Amino acid sequence: MSKYNAKKVEYNGITFDSTVECEFYKFLEKQINVGKFDRIEIQPRYELIPKKGKQRKAEYVADFALWKNNELVEVIDVKGMATPLALYKAKHFRDKYPDVQLTWICEAPKYTGKDWIEYDELKKVRRERKKAKE
């Protein structure tokens, strides 16, 4: 079990870090069938800082990369919450790979009426919901 209480899940011979990540993969499989992309890469690694001497390299390891016609379409990370390290690495990723769309996605709460929602959109919805309750 991880430090965030996520349990590893196996589906079609692939081990995912969490149930939510596995469910999003199933969602992506359906998107392949409608032609939005033609290949899903799992756990792609992107170098942020190269190895220098004894210093280890720094990498961004995403959950999925989506490809169409051998072109990278989008890099996706399924998030439950954004840690300071994740925010830091995403910032470096966007700086180093400006032509690659990095999307953080999360399971949408029932009150949004959606299955999946971008992380930034979820933060906005939560703020608005909190204001409405005050």
Describe the protein's architecture and organization.
This protein has 134 residues and is of the alpha+beta class. It has a single domain (9-133), classed as Trna Endonuclease, Chain: A, domain 1. It has helices at residues 19-33, 84-96, 119-133, and strands at residues 9-11, 14-16, 39-42, 45-49, 58-61, 64-68, 71-78, 102-107, 116-118. The strands form 3 sheets. The protein has a 5-stranded mixed sheet with strand order 3-6-7-8-9, with helices on both faces. The longest helix has 15 residues, at 19-33.
Strands of the biggest beta sheet: in what spatial order?
Answer: 3-6-7-8-9
Number of strands: 9
Helices, by number, come to 3
Helix content: 25-40%
CATH class: Alpha Beta
Mean pLDDT: 90
Low-confidence stretches: none
Under CATH, the topology can be stated as: Trna Endonuclease, Chain: A, domain 1
How far apart the termini lie comes to: 37 Å
